[in-house]
Design brief:
The structure holds three protein chains of three kinds. Chain A is mainly α. Chain A contains eleven helices and no strands. Classes of the chains: A mainly alpha, B mainly alpha, C alpha+beta.
């Protein structure tokens, strides 16, 4: 489920409700918000909601990076210990704190390794989408004319196809490897980056300081590289954080349908799909990974909201 | 205005043409359609070649595409490999179910989100506001498939209030609609809140009040109408996203709509059927975008009078 | 515009918004409560009062998938046949004990080495009034021989034509002695000639007409199939006047339908959900050992797999019993040989392979692979019970003796297209449930040269098959089956032997219903509790 930020839509529709043309590079970068790391930390510490969001994300990153040091292998099967409940329930065992699945594999280690896979894939995908999208958006804004038209039409065509169907078809036909999954997710995300960058660049192009630089004789490319792109970076970060939540969701949904990451790789979505039959008999197989996915997305969304508020209150949705 | 409309119409047509090309292109990687039709039963190679020729699968891609494109203009979207019938008919059979689900989900979303957004905006940063925002954020973070399964377990199996699957009576639509509608609810509530807050802080509101206009007038004539615009855009966009969410929802609830059909078509490798579904879905999305654009343009005097 | 004023306006604004909000929330709450109340109070289907003999409504059944056609030569999957069998009938019928008996054909005998003479039942009519007689049978035989559907080639090794002798006698002509003809009659569905000729296979598949106890009422695509009682049926009157079939590919959906009482019977309950059905107040489990077996056939042109020691090693390396106990929770049965209980030439004393990884490693070393080798394992996804999970377990166990498995899973349609269409390397999962009640069904599928599914056909297996088909003497034939099985199981070892699945159905507590082992569901013998 991808979306376009409010009001940034197409070639012809009006751009924003609030139109602020920045007057200096500094203002363009920071709008009317705070001024850098200090302000960032101060504002963060005053907002318990966002703080917990950032903490949650940091926690998941730690788990993904360091978790494997403390948990056993996620693919060790033990057919005599299948469907063990979590340790705090009667039949549970401390050796498997969160229980085991239908092949006797430890759930805790699978959630940790699932975090690694899902987060790695998602971050790579968002990064890839950001790079591709920014490139496309920059080209569209800088060259304008036919290139712009063509690129935006391609984006429209892609948006007109329900993305889930496109993703499922591609993955089914090409196979559900990690690489293919990242490629599909990049495909899902580049459009929004392209549109945001393009819109921002078109906007900034009219800013006085840019016009001033051009009047003085600075070349178009230098203007682009030195002034326009860095200013747009802030928005890329904002959009990236927001997209991350969507991408994690999309990856797990695709794995759930069955076209996602295949065994022996562990992914949260696949764990949910596999555990679905056991919803009443072994609820931990779905509830715990489901909670993990929700927590990760929630944290990312919360942190993303804060980032957006901080970097660009014009686009505030909250 | 007319120029604007004409331009948008032409763009829509171009987009649809692009969709038809891409979805036909997907069939290139899908393997032999004759194998799909025969489902692996033992048929001699000579028979397979004959079948391939009979259905025109041995022609070059562009020829087949041109065939499809011209047929599409007349309403023929190809033949399903599995059902041996015109694909458009099968799609149209299943479309109403998905539409009903999408409309129900949207209605539910709006019914819940509008009051929620208004409450939040009326008491910014209060406990109510925080609570509503938290709920909305959670609503945006919960995976659709998990939600659906949990709802079935709770309300169908344990409590028995609603059926767990299928589309047999009026009650059947409730759980699927709730599942599909949670994400749009959250989005719309958040957008409305932000939009209302923004509008309410603007100078012309204060001016209006300064002029002595009653609160109700202020609200109805100025605030809501201006706040409505971004919300309408989100509603329109969400409707399109609903088609994607319908895939998972219909799978869980065995809802006989296009979402379920599309997943089945892929697993059957019935790509012509999938292509027809994609074309219909794309047509609906494009029409919806067009309508939203028109509405938007109408409301924004800068465009209306250009 | 000074501060006090704006404070004022903010307060009033807030109050205004507050009132609107309250109204809005009130409306929303009211809507939701009304909906919930309406949902609570309306009734679900009430079962018939205990002890009454007449059911109060239709029998409702939830199956795994929706058919595309009810013409059995076009679509012959068991799921579809469950529904087709309510309306169409065959010349012979398979009993629950795996023995076939006369049905629409009252008797048959081998009139000559190339002719089987069938005597047909008299006084039977098709649901559209056409008479069941020799003309219908010869017409149907032609349909079977010339069909372009899934059954293409099915009956061609069985007979080559049919000739009417008199109104109720038909000769099935064979090219040579055909011992499988009698058992194949249990799959010989009869079609009404005039109607079929009129509408063709597609029309027939959408609206079938047969001689069965129910007749076609309505098929709402994607929703349900309704069949209603055939008032002119020649046999005993069934209890239910109407059966509603619906389709829910998702197992938890099917179980939920059973738990809420929305359906009375469901098929294919996976092991994970068996407890849920058992604990349900409204339903119980009916489980039976299935005739369906899962086996893993090997592509012998692959280097290591061409050595019989390696193939034996693979059988020793996999602990099938632990997979059955741990993964299937005991709900599967160890497989050996390729015959089945009640069929000709069945050898009850065959022993399954023991789990012996040491022996496996030794055999691998003997064959020249002391450190193992890589191999691909192809498997279906979601087509058979726990197929992909079991594949993971097998891969893990083979890995322990050094055989590194790459798993390739595909859903059903794509899987069979690929596996039947090309010779995939490595090991592939296959399944068989006898279509005709004899082991030759599996024999033809797995060992007949020229079939896409037969990866391990060779001259010896082909010879066995030909001999068995041509042997009309039952004793000698049973002997041949035994020799064939011994050759395959002891000398050739082309498979990894796995298990027979357990077919688990869910049935409402208001019904007395027994499950069959051949995946077909019987509705004529149901009674109410």
């Amino acid at each position: 489920m991808s979306y376009t930020p409010t009001l940034i839509r197409g070639f012809d529709s009006p751009k924003k409700v609030v139109d602020l043309v920045p007057e200096s590079p500094r203002q363009a970068r920071l709008s009317t918000a705070g001024v850098g790391r200090h302000q960032f930390i101060r504002r963060l510490s005053r907002d318990p909601g966002s703080l917990s969001g950032v903490a949650l994300v940091a926690a998941w990153v730690c788990i993904a990076l360091l978790g494997p040091l403390w948990v056993s292998s996620p693919t060790d099967q033990n057919l005599s210990l299948t469907l063990l409940p979590p340790a705090w329930l009667p039949d549970g065992s401390a050796a498997h704190p969160l229980g085991t699945d239908f092949l006797g594999r430890d759930l805790l280690s699978r959630i940790v390794y699932g975090a690694r896979t899902s987060l790695t894939v998602s971050v790579l995908a968002v990064a890839g989408a950001a790079v591709v999208g920014s490139l496309v958006g920059t080209v569209a804004a800088a060259w304008g004319g036919l290139a712009d038209d063509l690129l935006m039409r391609v984006a429209d065509v892609q948006l007109a196809i329900p993305f889930v169907l496109l993703a499922i078809t591609v993955l089914v036909l090409l196979g559900g490897s990690t690489l293919n999954m990242v490629l599909v997710l990049v495909l899902s995300g580049w459009v929004i980056f392209a549109r945001v960058i393009r819109s921002e660049l078109l906007h900034l192009r009219e800013a006085e300081f840019v016009l001033a630089a051009r009047a003085v004789g600075v070349s178009q490319i230098r203007v682009a590289l030195q002034h326009l792109l860095p200013n747009a970076m802030g928005f890329v970060v904002v959009v990236a954080t927001l997209e991350l939540g969507n991408v994690i969701l999309l990856e797990s949904a695709l794995s759930f349908i069955g076209v996602g990451i295949r065994p022996p790789q562990v992914s949260w979505g696949t764990m949910l799909a596999d555990g679905r039959d056991y919803l009443t008999s072994a609820w931990w197989l779905t509830t715990l990974p489901g909670a993990a996915v929700t927590a990760a997305i929630f944290g990312v969304n919360l942190a993303g909201d804060f980032l957006r508020d901080f970097l660009d209150p014009r686009r505030r949705e909250f | 205005m007319t120029k604007f409309l004409a331009r948008r119409l032409m763009l829509s047509f171009v987009v649809l043409a692009g969709v038809s090309f891409v979805s036909s292109g997907m069939m290139l990687i899908a393997g032999d359609p004759v194998e799909v039709m025969l489902e692996g039963t033992t048929t001699s190679d000579a028979d397979k070649v004959a079948l391939r020729h009979e259905f025109g699968f041995d022609r070059p891609f562009l020829v087949q595409y041109a065939d499809f494109a011209t047929g599409a203009l007349k309403g023929d979207l190809g033949r399903s490999l599995r059902f041996h019938q015109p694909a458009l008919g099968i799609v149209m059979d299943r479309l109403p179910a998905t539409l009903r689900l999408a409309v129900a989900a949207m209605l539910l979303a709006v019914l819940v989100a509008v009051p929620l957004g208004i409450v939040s905006a009326s008491r910014p940063n209060s406990w109510v506001d925080y609570g509503a925002r938290l709920l909305a954020l959670i609503g945006q973070s919960v995976p659709l498939y998990w939600l659906g399964i949990v709802l079935v377990l709770l309300f169908a199996v344990t409590l028995g209030w609603f059926p767990s699957a299928g589309d047999l009576d009026l009650k059947s639509i409730v759980l699927p609609a709730f599942t599909l509608g949670l994400y749009p609810t959250a989005r719309i509530a958040r957008t409305l809140r932000a939009s209302l807050l923004e509008v309410l802080s603007r100078e012309y509101i204060l001016t209006a009040r300064g002029k002595g206009l009653s609160n109700l007038t202020v609200l109805s004539r100025h605030a809501l109408r201006n706040a409505a615009l971004p919300v309408l855009t989100v509603v329109g966009l969400q409707f399109g996203a609903l088609l994607g969410g319908a895939v998972v929802t219909e799978t869980i609830f065995a809802w006989p709509g296009l979402g379920l059909l599309s997943v089945q078509a892929i697993s059957w490798r019935d790509l012509p059927l999938l292509r027809a579904i994609v074309m219909v879905a794309a047509a609906m999305l494009v029409t919806l975008n067009l309508a939203t654009d028109v509405l938007y343009a109408y409301v924004d005097p800068r465009i209306r009078f250009s | 515009m000074s501060k006090p004023e704006s404070v004022d306006s903010r307060l009033t604004r807030r109050r205004m918004l507050g009132r609107v909000a309250q109204a809005g929330v009130g409306v929303a709450l009211f809507d939701l409560t009304a909906a919930a109340l309406a949902a609570c109070s309306s009734s679900t289907a009430t079962p018939a009062p205990a002890g009454s003999q007449k059911p109060s409504g239709p029998l409702k059944v939830a199956l795994v998938s929706e058919p595309t056609s009810f013409e059995p030569s076009v679509e012959m999957s068991k799921v579809t046949l469950v529904q087709t069998n309510t309306m169409l009938e065959t010349l012979a019928i398979n009993g629950a004990d795996h023995v076939y008996k006369p049905w629409l054909a009252e008797s048959w005998n081998a009139f000559s080495p190339t002719r089987w003479r069938l005597k047909l039942k008299q006084g039977v009519k098709f649901q559209n009034g056409e008479p069941f007689n020799a003309d219908a049978v010869t017409f149907s035989a032609n349909v079977w021989l010339t069909t372009k559907g899934q059954a293409k080639g099915l009956f061609n090794p069985v007979f080559t034509g049919a000739e009417k002798v008199d109104d109720y006698t038909v000769d099935l002509v064979t090219s040579g002695p055909s011992s499988i003809l009698p058992s194949s009659l249990a799959f010989f569905y009869v079609f009404p000639p005039k109607y079929y000729a009129q509408v063709g296979p597609d029309g027939f598949g959408a609206k079938p007409v047969g001689t069965g106890p129910w007749r076609f009422a309505e098929w709402t695509k994607g929703v349900q199939l309704r069949v209603e009682r055939n008032p002119d049926y020649w046999g005993p009157k069934p209890l239910f006047d109407e059966i509603d079939f619906r389709w829910a590919p998702d197992a938890s959906t099917r179980v939920a339908l059973l738990e809420t009482g929305e359906v009375d019977l469901i098929q294919s309950v996976p092991p994970a959900l068996v407890d849920r059905v058992k604990q349900s107040a409204k339903a119980h489990v009916e489980a039976v050992q299935s005739l369906r077996r899962i086996y893993f056939q090997m592509n012998l042109s692959d280097g290591p797999l061409s050595d019989v020691r390696v193939r034996r090693a693979i059988n020793y390396a996999v602990d099938v019993d632990s997979i059955i106990a741990g993964l299937f929770k005991g709900q599967a049965y160890r497989d050996k040989g390729f015959n089945d209980i009640g069929l000709e030439g069945y050898q009850p004393d065959l022993k399954p392979f023991t789990y012996d990884p040491a022996q496996a490693r030794k055999l691998l070393a003997d064959a020249g692979y002391p450190s193992g080798f890589p191999v691909t394992l192809w498997h279906t996804v979601g087509r058979y019970v726990l197929d992909k999970e079991a594949a993971q377990a097998i891969a893990d166990q083979l890995g322990k003796v050094g055989i590194n498995v790459t798993l390739m899973g595909l859903e059903s349609a794509a899987y069979f297209s690929k596996v039947n269409g090309e010779r995939v390397p490595g090991i592939n999962l296959y399944s068989s449930a006898p279509l005709f009640m004899n082991a030759l069904s599996l024999g033809l599928q797995a060992f007949q040269p020229g079939r896409g599914s037969a990866y391990d056909a060779n001259d010896k297996t082909a010879a066995f098959i030909t001999a068995i088909i041509g042997e009309l003497d039952a004793q000698k034939r049973a002997d041949l089956y035994r020799q064939f099985e011994n050759y395959v199981y002891n000398d050739y070892v082309p498979w990894l032997w796995a298990w027979h699945q357990q077919d688990v159905y869910g049935a409402s507590n208001r019904l007395n219903w027994t499950a069959r082992s051949d995946e077909l569901m019987e509705f004529t013998a149901i009674t109410l509790k």
